[in-house]
Amino acid sequence: MTVSRYNLVVVLTVALGSFTYGFDSAIIGSVFGLPSFFSYFGLTLNGSSSASIIGAANGLFAGGGMIGAAFNGWLADRLGRVKAIQIPCVLGVIAAAIMGASVHVAMFLVGRCLSGIACGMFSIATPLYQSEISPAHQRGKMVGSHGILVVTGYAFAAWTGYGCYFETHLEAQWRLCLSLQAVAPLLLVLTTPWIPESPRWLISQGQRDQAWSTLNRLQPVTTDHDGSTVEIYREICEQIAVESESSNNVLQSIKDPQTRKRLLCVFFVQCLAQSSGILVISNYQILLWNNLGLYGSLPLLLYSVYTSWAAILNWVASRMVDRLGRVRMMVVGICGCVVMMSCYTAMVARYSSTDNQAGNVMGIVFLFLHVTFYAIFVDTVSYVYCSEIFPMHERAKGMALSIFGLFMMTLTADDLPVYTEAASTAFAQVGWKYYLVFIIVPASGVPVLARLPETKGLTLEESATLFGIPTPPLGDMEKAQVEHIEGTTSGEDVPETMTIRH
Q: Which UniProt keywords apply (predicted)?
């Protein structure tokens, strides 16, 4: 099976938005590992004031992510997928400038919130766009680039923090870390004039000639699995013609049983993924290494190696997901995370703040094994799955809800601790017992996860059949438009050797 070089370049280019999300969300861990940041703002490194700033920074980022996710679902449908990528680019650059130039904690927190909004928008727009321009039997690998670049962003952020630790000008250490957040979104916004709009969105807007031209350029080479470009175009037109009769109102959509099932699926998948404890481990990793008796530059080095390892494993996941299936991989991953988190918790409970070198080393090993399971079987796969199961008229809103759920799981809701926002307080109050949350919750969700519909190998339109929605024939107008395309397509554009899906 082959993918056109142009299609691959476009997918990887928009993945700069994924890199931005990863770098911006993880750089805060590196900044909090630099004592110069706390001293500049007059905060004690291990005091309650620093804990409150850490909690606020993570909470505002997550809150901003919820706003960005909720807004971009509407924006992607209204203005198109490319505009939904361009706007967070601008926001990301502004946020980086504010944080890098901060002279007061409040200024830093405002920039952190804006960064969260941009990242929430990227988390929807990037995999949404990638899923709509990728061939069915390569979609897992191509949408998987979102997860790969997110974790690559984590790794770059970690190595940036490690390198800045040795900068002799102390104030430049953390300002450089925060300012570098502007690089990826700036590069992306400069390339967006050459990025084509999603053919599926163009068809939904009645721009069928432009959609055909774009689709033919993106997928000129087809396979026995995916059929000819004309057949793919026909299938998209069929499904969108039917979906146009459906309500685009959010409340009406939720009342529909099939839509409600999809929404519950994506919300559940994202919430369960974050319940593995991966966000807390990432954002508070420097403190976790400190709890194991490691200080100075060593925690930053371990954090860098940890995130680089995760990036490599996300690439491995992208090569496996189209063969093994989405649901099976996520079940294996969550089970593995539960086991590794249990082992790590035992090490912290027994050896934290002690001089037992063997116990502390095993704690490090179990953290690396935890991210191994998460990166291979959950991280990339969860984004792929959530981008696949919605019909065209609900895809942006569905992705918005899944990402909304992701960021919601990092906030405090109704005075109950929910992961990252509560973590700094929880670690101080209950210590290792807080990790039990990341054992019990995901373990409880595995039986439900195993029953979710599998989308491996299906086109975006075919996935509708998993939720009881048939793919009906074209109406007269749509049929005439497709026949016009078929009649005007030359033999060079669609070779006779290409097979048509039945």
A: Sugar transport, Transport
